[in-house]
Write a structure and sequence with these properties.
By secondary structure, this protein is of the alpha+beta class. It has 5 helices and 3 strands.
Length: about 130
């Protein structure tokens, strides 16, 4: 695994155009690759899913609820959560001895918009021809 740091994507970063809209430039591709790299690990993908589907107060989940779901040490889970934070997908807040995590909807919306192909307009039906009596 690489020791590269993932740069946090700013909330005001211009959204990448949709995949089919136009080719990405180098900067857009680099920024988007950081997010996909963070999601490229099954543990991180599961963590994001668990956090996003949390029914807790304000959509938050305590790290104490996440750790038991994995056969990994707490420091390893914290490392994966840190990478998700650095990618701009989640955020957190320490409350006493526990840390609570929540998903950043704008980040998921940006990914969704990038991966969504535009709906193709329905082909208009051919006009009905009126039959004339013979």
């Amino acid at each position: 695994m690489s020791n590269q740091e993932l740069e946090v994507l700013g909330q005001d970063t211009a959204c990448c155009p949709g995949l089919t809209a136009s080719p990405l430039d180098e900067d857009q591709a680099a920024d988007l690759a950081k997010v996909f790299k963070a999601l490229g690990d099954p543990v991180r993908l599961r963590l994001l899913s668990m956090i996003a589907s949390s029914r807790g107060e304000g959509g938050e989940v305590c790290v104490c609820e996440l750790t038991p779901a994995f056969d990994l040490s707490q420091p390893t889970i914290s490392h994966h959560l840190k990478l998700l934070r650095q990618a701009g997908l989640i955020d957190c807040e320490r409350r006493g001895t526990w840390v609570y995590y929540w998903v950043l909807p704008k980040a998921l919306d940006r990914l969704s918009a990038f991966l969504t192909t535009p709906a193709t307009p329905a082909t208009p039906a051919a006009p009905a021809t009126a039959k004339t009596p013979a």
